[in-house]
Amino acid sequence: MSVKTLSVLLFSMLALVATAHANEAEIRKAIEAKLGIKVESVTKAGYFGLYEVYADGNLFYTDDKVSAMLVGGDLIRSPHAMNLIDLKTNRNVTDDRLRQLTAIKFSDLPLDRAIKQVKGDGKRVLATFEDPNCGYCKRLAKDLEKLDNVTIYTFLLPILSEDSLKKSRQIWCSADRQKAWNDWILDGKTPGGRDNCDTTAITRNQEYARKLNITGTPTLFFADGERVPGAVPLNVLEQKLKSLK
User: Fold this and answer.
1) Residues 178, 118: contact at Cβ < 8 Å?
2) Domains in the chain: boundaries
3) What is the DSSP string of 140-170?
4) Which fold has domain 106-243?
5) What is the pLDDT of residues 141-181, one digit of tens each?
């Protein structure tokens, strides 16, 4: 190899290194500006042209234009932890797609296996899957109580404990299921009475939930079939219900 050729190769390598460092510096600057956090390191990830960014004890990935980010945690133990974020709009692309992909036909819900509550004209509809011992369900119940002109279908889904199953059966076996549910979930009045009536509805709810991959409570379904996990705040509930008119 001639000296001239070697010089050209060395120059090319140095240029590539300089470009890489320039990209990393630009990415660091862009991330810090967009997110307002201190970036500790930026390095090439080695996959799909992505850059690894380490900041605030978190690891995430971005492209060279910092137009989007993959954020999250352990993909092995928590496969839904990684999310794709559109940095131009701060939109969680992964979350939006999951909502689309996990949507159902509301008319397919087995509403005969739910506790029905009609408030006002009942024109708006909402279905929830809830465990009676779920703290988030109790929080949700306080907001649902403030809704008007809505029909709420509550599917009893005991997944937390044997006590959850017992309470679900007692509520289902009550002469007034709606009252028994509200007495417990809103006021903490333990359901009494028998729990040995026909409770196959609860068993079938559990089977149905597994089919829909419902793994946590509460899980909500709106009239358009959109699934929303967790205790949704009242203002978000109202906004979603109004959008479906």
Assistant:
1) no
2) 3-101, 106-243
3) HHHHHTT--SEEEEEEE---S-HHHHHHHHH
4) Glutaredoxin (3.40.30)
5) 999 999 999 999 999 999 999 999 999 999 999 999 999 99
